[in-house]
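Q: Got a minute? One more chain.
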Amino acid sequence: MNSFKDRIIRAAKLDVNLYEEGEADKRALGQAMGVVVLSSIAAGVGTIARGGLGGVLIGTITAIIGWYIWAYLTYFIGTKLLPEPQTKADHGELLRTIGFSSSPGLIRVLGIIPGIGALIFLVASIWMLVAMVIAVRQALDYNSTLRAVGVCVIGWIIQMLFFMLLFSIFFGGAPKPV
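A: Always. Here it is, folded:
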């Protein structure tokens, strides 16, 4: 089994083989969840001046829930609504590959540096999106990157609507942008 650190680096480098490996290795689920947790903690540290320690905790819990929902949405959209003829996947494959696609989010810890936080978060978001598209393409065995982009966009819209509804129910409004 590859080391956790090696997998994080390869995922951040957008190594397609890492995403294939994560798809196939059922034992990698713990590592994928570890990446999601570390990435969310990095985001919390990067915004600690605004969110405090409570923000780190809430952010971590939200990230884990979001990761699970995102993987299920991606599974459903990719295998039921937009499959290619060779598409074959299960929820676990998407949990693993999408978890590793959070690796670029580790740089968000640098958001703590005054004056560059917004730029760091923008770069991390774009990098994570590209990693997500690669992860989805590999997990769903797509030939088309454009189809993987479509699955990600549809899933993102549904997930954002879900979280806006959830925040309005529990906190009386949508979350404020970072």
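A: The chain is about 75% helix and 0% strand.
Q: Perfect, thanks.
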